Structure formats: C-alpha cells, structure tokens
Amino acid sequence: MLYYFLIMPSPFANAKKQIDAVVDILAEYYPDKSKFRKVIESIKTPQKVFKRNLSIRTDNGKAKKFMAFRSQHNDARGPFKGGIRFHSEVTEDEVKALSTWMSIKCAVVGIPYGGGKGGIIVDPQKLSESELEQLSKKYAEFIAPFVGPWKDVPAPDVYTNPQIMAWMLDEFQKIKGSHDPGMITGKPLAIGGSQGREDATARGSLYATREAAKLLKLDLKKATVAIQGFGNAGYFLAKLCPEILGAKVVAVSDSKGGIFSEEGLDIDKVLAHKKKTGSVNCFPKTKKISNEEILELEVDILFPAALEDVITKENASKIKAKILGEAANGPTTPEADEILYKKGVFVIPDFLCNAGGVTVSYFEWVQNLYNYYWELDTVHKRLETKMVKAFKSVVETAKKYKVNNRMGAYIVAVERVAEAMKLRGWV
Fold first, then answer.
1. DSSP conformation letters of 381-414
2. Which of 133, 158, 191 is the last residue of a domain?
3. Which of 44, 117, 274, 386 is labelled catalytic?
4. Alpha-carbon span 253 to 230, nearest angstrom
5. Interacting residues of 216 by C-beta distance below 8 A, sequence separation 6+
6. Structurally, how many domains does the chain consist of?
7. What CATH number should be reported for the domain holding residue 117?
8. Same domain as 294, residue 362
9. Looking at residue 200, which CATH number applies to its domain?
10. DSSP 233-293
11. What phi and psi values does residue 374 have, to the nearest 5 degrees?
12. Quick check: is 221 catalytic?
C-alpha cells in the first residue's frame, strides 16, 4: 500500500517540475545566476497557505467538520486570484499546485494578478441547500482576514457556482461592514457579476483552439471533437463548438462514464438527459464508453475538461487527437507532455487554454471597481483579443526556443513573474 502512494503523481511536484524545466533557458539572460535561482525557488513556493476545520450544524442537528484550505502563491504582479473547489478529493498539495498554476496562467494571459486557490474536502451533492449555504459562509468567515479586492479575489471552481459566490459575498460584506462586490468574482449578475462569465472558460478554450487549427491548417468544418468532463466548462465547450469552431462533437463524458456517436451529439438533449438521470450515460442511440476510452478516440480535437493527471506516460502514446486543448487544470503529467510532443500532438496548455475564466473574472473585477458594466459583445471581443494575443506569444516563444507549448508558456510566465519580483527588490 505504501508503494502505491509513493508512485501516485503529486500535482504540486508536477508544478515545480514544470517550472524547473525552463530554468536553464531563462538563466542565461540573468547575469546574477545565484539571485535568479533564488527567484525560481521563491516562485516554486506559495507565500502563504491557510487551513482550518470548519464546523456546521447539519439538518439533523449534529455538528460536522470539513477541512478547508486557501493557498496564496505569488502576488508580485497583483492581488492573488483563484477559485474555490468543493470536492471530496481536495488536498493541501492540490491547492498549492493550483495556486502555482494560477500565477502562471495570469502571467501568460497578461492580467495583473498572482495565483491563489482554495478548497474544502466535501462532497457537496451530499449536503442540503441549507447545509451548503452554512459551509459556504463558514469558508468566507475563515478566509475573510486574508482576502479582498486588493489582496486576494476568490472565484468559483469545481462544484462551486454563482449561488455559492453570492453566499460568500454576503458573509464577506457582513464581516467587512461595507458593500464591495469586487471581493469575489463569478457572482450572479444581480449582485455585480459580469456578462459572459458563465461560458468564459469554454469560450476562451475555443478561441485558442481555433488559432491552433489555423496553424495546423485543420479544416474545422470536417473536424470531430471529444470532451472528457460535462460540468460547466465541458458543457459549454460542447455547446459552443459548432458556433465558434464549426466542428462536430462526437463524444462527451462525466464522472460516471461517457457516450459516443459518429453522427454527432445534440448537446441540449444530452444535458436534459443528464439532469433527468444524473449522468450522460445511456443517452439514446449512442455507444457507451469509459472516461479512459474517450481520451483515446480517433478525433481531431480532444478537450480534457475534468480533473488533473488524466493523461500520463501510460496512456499518452494512445492519444490520437491532433489538438489537445486542456480545459481542465493540470490534466497532463510532465512525462506525458514529452510523449505528446514527440508524437506531434499540438497541446494547448491548461494555463493558456482555460484562461478565459480568470480573464473574464478580471473583467468582472474591473467592472466592480468602476461600478460600470459592459455589454456581452464587449466582453466577448475583449476576451478574444486577450486569448489570441496570449496564444501567439506562447507559440512564438515555443518556436524560438524549440520547446513544446507548455514550456513556451512557462518561459513567458516565469519571466514575467521573475521580472516583477526583481523590480520590487524581493530577491
């Protein structure tokens, strides 16, 4: 049993390994190598990590505790920014990794934030609405001293949503004694949310994928798409694919399995089936497939849009897609990256591909600070501009240094974070 745990991939170890991979490339531009190494070691370590057991009173009157975390990685470029996930497999290691990747993501896409991430070890589907509200407000109370529009701006993540953000905002404002919607993003429109936030992660991923298809000269009208994950990002990827790419979605999956149809899927009907049955499984006139099989389908574009570490050295050689768009955080291990690069799979790394969410969260924050709100078309156009610019920067850097796209993105991001730290005199 001990051996099993030793060989399990660590998200935070992967994050540090990915940063280490670009050190030698960047080091040649820094005369003081010792100072540069100190910068890198600092970037590999979150500045602060908070954790606490949160206690709520369940509907049957009993007290129940849940472990909660908040990791603040690096705020050299601006306030910490990152989501809060409610999931039974949340770990401290995971939130540290995700906060590191958020610093990289914000730097890649060129928005003035550092990385943060939070989570609670809980299965939210086993809580009543009143219990979920209690837990959300307890979490807000826990992190209230450490967050704010100029400190750390939380947002939704896995199994959290605008309603949970609204509960948290309410608690924050009671504690702070002021009305400040910029304390949290991903809120409902009625209390300071932004137009275009709901589908932003998917829309940004599709803008980046469209640019990749142009480079590869891939005819998107004939392209097929598979999506692992059918949560917020996965659903909107599937829904918007025909509109933005003109491609056909032939497979989707959720935590209970997947479905495949060579003719393509009616996504609204698949969603209705999932709401009725609890899963996309057994959707009429489709072939049942596993979450492992969906990754290995013969499709043009593959979007892993679920959890991390699903593409490893064991299955990377079986990936047949031409474009791999990482809509999830950390779905590909460093070992798998090398295999995919040698195979010629065009990988759009997570902190570029799924940066649409944090970009529109940034837009929401800006609108909150000004108390002036944009039209939906303005949000879409500004998101597209940000994603295309970031995509070109990453691809050009990867080409310049003859490395894969993830390393190209890390070079762009680490250089920007290191420069901010250097200018501040932190090292």
1. HHHHHHHHHHHHHHHHHHHHHT--HHHHHHHHHH
2. 191
3. 117
4. 6
5. 322, 323, 346
6. 2
7. 3.40.50.10860
8. yes
9. 3.40.50.720
10. HHHHHHHHHHHHT--EEEEEEETTEEEE-TT---HHHHHHHHHHHSSSTT-TT-EEE-HHH
11. -95, 155
12. no
Count the alpha carbons within 13 Å of 177 in the hemisphere toward its beta carbon: 0
Distance CA 365, CA 19 (A): 28
The edge-to-edge listing of strands for the beta sheet with 63-74 is 48-57, 63-74, 114-121, 80-87, 152-156
Domain boundary among 140, 174, 191: 191
Asked if residue 218 is part of any domain, the answer here is: yes
Q: Are strands 152-156 and 114-121 parallel, antiparallel or unpaired?
A: unpaired
**Average pLDDT, integer, range 316-327:** 97
**Mean pLDDT, the chain, as a whole number?**
94
Q: What's the CA angle centered on 306, arms 283 and 144, to 5 degrees?
A: 130
Bridge partners of residue 304, in order along the sequence:
228
> How do 248-254 and 80-87 pair as beta strands?
unpaired
Identify the DSSP state of 10.
P
Tell which residue, 312, 295, 311, has the closest CA to residue 253.
295
Dump the DSSP string for 309-361: S-B-TTTGGG---SEEE--SSS-B-HHHHHHHHHHT-EEE-HHHHTTHHHHHH
Six token digits for residue 277: 């049955």
Residue-level pLDDT at 158: 85
- Does residue 6 surpass a pLDDT of 90? no
The first and second tokens of residue 288, run together, are 């049942």
What's the confidence (pLDDT) of residue 9?
60
Task: Report the 10 Å Cβ neighbour count for 180.
Answer: 16
pLDDT above 70 (res 310)? yes
Q: Structure tokens of 88?
A: 């039974």
Domain that holds residue 232: 194-427
Distance CA 293, CA 290 (A): 5
Distance from chain centroid for Cα 75: 18
> Do the domain assignments include residue 129?
yes
13-34: per-residue pLDDT in tens? 888 888 998 888 998 888 888 8
- The rounded distance, in Å, linking the Cα atoms of 407 and 411 is 6
Tell me whether residue 331 is in a domain.
Answer: yes
Give the Cα separation of 397 and 381 in Å (integer). 24
- Judge whether 13 lies within some domain: no
- Residue whose pair of structure tokens reads 């490339």 in the numeric block: 25
